[in-house]
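Module 6 notes. Inverse folding takes a fixed backbone as the condition and produces residue identities as the prediction. Think of it as a translation problem where the source language is geometry and the target language is the twenty amino acids. Below is one complete input and output pair. Work through it position by position during the lab.
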């Protein structure tokens, strides 16, 4: 089947997962997806198609939480829109449900106007996340042409894996991170990571207060760019497997 539409539908307490292998053209608008899993794969929504026939998918205005392996998995899909969704924090610590979106094996994904609470998002080739809010959580970016734009984060992290060949670099397919605001209010180990230093970073604003540092590090109301032992603002590796990479840039980094 194809071009299926699901509206105002709740899916919960299913033993394997909420939705498996949705079809091309599926649209799911409004609903709650929670407490699905217990057996592998164990996602709230799992869209897989190794033949890459599952395309033009829209997941809109959904609430997702407490799904065993994560809320949404996208494998072999193309042209997917996830918009207006609320990824709530896990209330079942014995489940591995801290992942909101696992799109490590999809292409052309757009995540827009979503709210994430203590959840991670994994984006792959030509994936984009924009106009989203994170109350804790991590954005992981890998592959060519991945973009994070207009993101507000509280106690958040961004990890750019970069591109592993000079050919990709010359094609201008580097990941972009732009118009980001991150506010830290408690201790942390790192905030930004660019593994192969290929990211293009623009208008990054990071605000640290006293409670985000180790005790007795500074006095006053702001951290003023002082970091404590074991804390890293920008974590990066200049060399991977003995081969150097480069070609990125930073334009507008503000740290207060």
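Target side of the pair, the amino acids:
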């Amino acid at each position: 089947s194809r071009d299926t539409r699901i509206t105002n539908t709740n899916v919960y307490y299913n033993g394997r997962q909420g939705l498996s292998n949705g079809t091309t053209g599926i649209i799911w608008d409004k609903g709650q997806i929670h407490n699905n899993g217990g057996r592998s794969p164990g996602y709230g929504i799992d869209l897989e198609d190794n033949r890459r026939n599952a395309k033009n998918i829209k997941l809109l205005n959904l609430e997702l939480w407490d799904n065993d392996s994560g809320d949404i998995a996208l494998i072999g899909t193309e042209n997917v829109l996830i918009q207006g969704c609320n990824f709530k924090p896990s209330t079942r610590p014995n489940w591995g449900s801290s992942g909101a979106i696992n799109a490590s094996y999809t292409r052309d994904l757009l995540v827009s106007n979503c709210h994430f609470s203590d959840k991670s998002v994994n984006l792959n080739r030509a994936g984009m996340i924009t106009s989203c809010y994170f109350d804790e959580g991590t954005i992981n970016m890998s592959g060519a042409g991945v973009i994070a734009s207009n993101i507000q984060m509280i106690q958040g992290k961004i990890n750019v894996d970069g591109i592993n060949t000079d050919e990709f670099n010359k094609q201008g397919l580097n990941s972009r991170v732009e118009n980001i605001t991150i506010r830290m209010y408690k201790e942390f180990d790192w905030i930004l990571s660019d593994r192969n230093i290929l990211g293009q970073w623009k208008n990054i604003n990071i605000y640290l207060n006293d409670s985000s540092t180790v005790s007795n590090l500074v006095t006053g109301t702001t951290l003023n760019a002082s970091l404590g032992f074991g804390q890293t603002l920008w974590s990066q590796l200049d060399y991977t497997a003995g081969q150097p990479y480069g070609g990125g840039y930073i334009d507008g980094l503000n740290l207060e």
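Reference fact for the lab report: Residues 168-172, 213-229, 236-247 have pLDDT under 50 and may be disordered.
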